[in-house]
Design goal:
Layout lengths: L6 E4 L9 H14 L6 H6 L5 H8 L7 H15 L9 H10 L3 E6 L3 H10 L8 E4 L10 H10 L6 E5 L2 H8 L5 E4 L6 H4 L6 E3 L2 H13 L2
Parallel strand pairs: 1-2, 1-4, 2-3, 4-5, 5-6
Helix pairs in contact: 1-4, 3-4
Length: 219
């Protein structure tokens, strides 16, 4: 890092929000409804991508069903995700970073409607300076959503850091030479995340918070 970090961009599902299990369940429900095969591993592997890309990867042989499958998935997720919450320590971490004058942003594979719903659910709209959903830009690992966040905040890539739990998050940041941190408690393993040269891989939110305080805020 050559410049002080002024902006931290977080992925949502699997990084801030404990929702991976419900996403998998809802994808499998939608697949079963339309008689399409889908394993837990396959469903988990695409978390972080935009919904159109999810449908193309998981159900390539039935493009005519993509809209219906995604609608079924979304309806099931909303109806059954009342227990989804931030990982322990996330609220404390975000408020601490905000109090230190760090700008916060979200870059997610969710739709704008889905992101707005969970921002309201967690009462966190005011915590984030910028949010970007896959439905209003290009899906990860294309870096366009990061570039749009940088443009909106007036910062350069080396003044920001991306935090995420998937290869899509870290590859997206790597594509524009943005510093990045992985978290191992979400979707992808440490071995996968290490392929994208992260500054650090946190095993839990407490580790992530401590690293950010010691190496980002203090720098």
């Amino acid at each position: 890092m050559t410049s002080p970090i002024k902006l931290i961009i977080f992925d949502w599902d699997g990084t801030l929000f404990d929702s991976v299990g419900q996403i998998v369940q809802s994808l499998k429900f939608a697949a079963q409804t339309f008689e399409q095969p889908l394993t837990d591993e396959a469903a988990k592997s695409i978390i972080g991508l935009g919904l159109p890309e999810v449908a193309e990867i998981l159900f390539p042989n039935v493009p005519e069903l993509h809209d219906a499958i995604l609608q079924c998935y979304g309806d099931h997720y909303v109806e059954n995700s009342k227990g989804d919450i931030w990982f322990a320590g996330v609220a404390v971490m975000l408020h601490d970073l905000k109090e230190q004058g760090i700008k916060l942003a979200v870059a997610t594979g969710k739709s704008r409607r889905g992101l707005d719903r969970v921002l309201g659910q967690t009462q966190s709209i005011d915590l984030f300076d910028v949010t970007r959903a896959a439905s209003e830009t290009k899906s990860k690992p294309d870096p366009l959503m990061l570039e749009e966040i940088l443009n909106e905040t007036g910062l350069n890539a080396d003044q920001a850091i991306m935090v995420g739990d998937t290869s899509y998050d870290l590859e997206m940041a790597q594509n524009i030479a943005m510093p990045r941190i992985g978290v191992s408690y979400g979707v992808h393993s440490t071995a996968v995340l290490n392929q994208f040269a992260p500054l650090y891989i946190a095993d839990n939110v407490s580790d992530l918070h401590q690293f950010l305080k010691q190496h980002i805020i203090a720098s």
